[in-house]
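hi! just following up on the protien thing from before. the input was this:
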Amino acid sequence: MRPLTGIVLEVLALSVFLALAPLAPRGLPFALYIVLAQLVATYLIHCPAHYLVGNATGISFRSIRFGRTTLARVLPGRAAGIARFFPVLSLSTERSSLARISSRRAATMYASGTVASCASAFVIALVATWAEPVFFSALAWGVAVAYLLFDVVFSPKGGDLMRARAALAA
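and the predicted 3d structure came back as:
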């Protein structure tokens, strides 16, 4: 699929999902909706962040498609097996455009997906804090911190932060 088409579809899907928030009943159902919104947002904001930052830094993209996560190589035990079956959206870069830009710009594009995904989990947790009692919003903060810790541990070993570090070393 063309990159811009895929990005627009992702942003549209995320917007529709988040627009459903007022329909979720307050209390535990809303807290569970918030957690699901965090998971959806971290997934659907990732490629748009790469795309926007990539275009701003001079990187072109060929396509967006479903693929397998590279993190499966570094996850422990059964988590790796599960991750291999979970499809993720992936942007294919134009290698020639990567070769023309600085290593710092390439690293910025690679890191942008992880940064946007983590930030989205925290923004949604912050909104949940305003909307719900502390007991329920604590669940959203727990998810945001867990996602951040996951990325801090695993992304430098086999994800976007590994690619960012490799781009800076090149």
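The longest strand covers residues 61-68.
The CA atoms of residues 16 and 47 lie 17 Å apart.
cheers
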